[in-house]
Amino acid sequence: MYRKVIAILFLSFVSLFALSAQSDEWFWNQPISKIDFNGLKNVKKSDLNGITSSFINSPFTDETYNELLDRLYSLEFFEDITPYAKHASNDSSDVLLVFEVVERPVIKSINFVGNHKIRNGELREQIKNKTSDIFIESKVLIDERIIRNYYLKKGFNASYVSHKTEKTEDGIVVSFEISEGSSSVIREIKFTGNSIASSRALKRKLALKEVGLFKDGAYQSSTLEQDKQTIIKYYQERGYADANILDVKIDTAFNEEKQRDELTILFMIQEGAQYTYAGLRISGNEVFTEKELLKQKKLKEGQIYNATKFQEDVAAITNVYHENGYMMNEFYPVPVKDSDRHEISYDLTIKEHSRSHIENIIIKGNNKTKEFVIKREIPITAGDTFSNDKIINGLRNLMNLRYFSNIVPEVQQGTEGNLVDLIFSVEEQSTSSVNFGITFSGATEASESFLPISLFAKVENSNLFGEGRTVSAGTTLSPNEQSIDLAYSQNWIGKYPIAFNAALSFSHSRPTGLKNFWTPNLQLIQNNYYMDYNDWSITLSSGLSRRWTPDYAILTLAGGISSSLQKNIFDESINVPVEAAISSYANRWGISNSIYGSFSVDNRDINYDPSKGWFASQRFTWHGLIPGLEKEFYLRSDTKLEGYFKLFDIPVTDNWNFKMVFAAYTGFSAIIPVENGINTKNAIYVDGLLNGRGWSDIYKEARGLAMLSNRVELRVPVVPGIIGVDGFWDAAAVKSKLSDMGSLGIEDFYFSYGPGIRVLIPQLPLHLMFAWRYRIEDGKPKFADTPFNFVLSFNIVNY
């Protein structure tokens, strides 16, 4: 704090008298056009942009300066900060604010002393500090606690951790000194007094486990307390409202051979009688009727009492008030037991208060992302009535940005009884990515001599300058296709949720097309002989979309335009294409244009990794705008519908749930040609990557003007937000004309199924699958000759 005082005095006296002497306090209330730093060595300037960028163009005042200085010191990167102001340019009204900083030293190395049972590498994975990080004493103390907790988790209850530091010319050497003590493992868990629940059933519920081949059996006293509550909850969910743990006895025996304490834990249980539920009586409610409050109740009168369901009913009543802005209400449930009839009922007294309003919306943890980028996604502002639904919608919008690994909303009491502060604490994740790799696919127009291998590379920043803008550059290289793609997008224009995108691409490919062939007897054949040609194109596209966010879904209306220059190179003296669309651009540049319009409804909880909800969209694209210059005129329709349902979500550890999500998708695409037909490459086909996955070698036969694509998946996140496994089943069918869809039968479909690995990192949206393929012939499945196909696809998010 004294450094901040010194800095303020320095600015007030030195800058005011030394610098402003030239221009009579020229910098006060002038716009800050630039903020710079001198003395940065280990701290990157980009790490500071998230703080400083929000102050650019703000008037230079005491309040502005103090807030900026507070935020810089809160980073704990600097030992000292000395500010001064000067003219940013020839314009005397521009302020360049410069901070002369002295950085804290970096961590040169991290050592562990005294650890014999747990390896250095294992401990290094747990701590937050890493070599070359800025040394901050408070963060080292946090790592001390992390190491201690890790030892407790492993059963070393007598462990002790401290640290010491050594200052060197290259930085700070941090040494964690560990006294491990002996470990404690659970040899046996026993129960007494349990008659309606078996010991085996109770053991399965406990977090503590007996030591075994695949279980370390580590004992933790904090976990024991949790397990006591788990046992009581188990009984209370089955009607035993008086269930209790009378005592827990722990016998300890030291194992000389393994040098550890081995424990026998005995839970002494009092079960009591089983109760039925006799109902809930509510008093004090004037805003809502009893019928409105009990609309979503789960526990019915006459059922076996379930404490968990009752608490959910009380939470639902509380939520009715919260959704309507009544945050300060008080709820007092009192149980009424009839021991003779073994019935339990509750008297719920509600003390109502006036509606709460938002006093402030506070954002914490955003070192890069500007505050306005976060606040504009939250559909509630200061002064609004508190709304739980709007907060949930804001949370969904923020998660969909993919800027944050974690978002925690909190509500705190404001300056008055009916005012609350809404706090969003965010943990930022990397929004820059460099992706490169190899894609295997047969979905190409290349001749059979080409290997179906593509090299791809892409560089993207989805939060440029912390302002919510996305820029990307990518390239694809394969024997038959090369492309360079540049793209820019932003989700807001000013204060309005209007998204803008633009893209420029250069591509070259070597597709094949049918050619006219005359036999020696001058018979014309148009469906058997192919020609190779070089297709060069340059495409510029742009689009706008408007979003609305009512409580039930995100509604999006979008439109855009695309223009391409195209040239097909081949020897016209030898090859005569069957398709007019190929010959129209023969050895000359031609133009093709398209416009599209779409509408979508998005009810998914998180669009890139949904657990529940649904999505529906309809898009129409018209190709061909200039008669005489363009050769292809047709309408394309794309309809998509997808849904997600959580089958189960079972807590396994404190940080991981065993969860399975059922996902289903159906899509229908159709093309209606207007004139001269369409180029084969613009036809709809089974690509083997996104539809009919695994069928990557049928791009010629499975091609037409209408396609129905279906898929279902069972998804299991293994490491949430990182990686998951799934099983899939696909069915896709293509018809040469839209009218043929009326005769669609099961034998028209290409089926595939198999397991997959899904990368859930937004910057690396890969999907690896093993696909077994089959078709139905004569009412029976006939499998493809190859046992399975390996597919490397992408997690494409529909918008």
TrEMBL record:
Domain POTRA: 105-181, 184-270, 275-353, 356-429
One Gene Ontology cellular component: cell outer membrane
Assigned keywords, A-Z: Cell outer membrane, Membrane, Repeat, Signal, Transmembrane, Transmembrane beta strand
Localization (cell): Membrane
First-listed, main subcellular location of the protein, grouped into a coarse class: membrane
This protein's record includes keyword Ribosomal protein: no
Short name of one Pfam family: Omp85
Name recorded for this polypeptide: Outer membrane protein assembly factor BamA
Classification lineage: Bacteria, Pseudomonadati, Spirochaetota, Spirochaetia, Spirochaetales
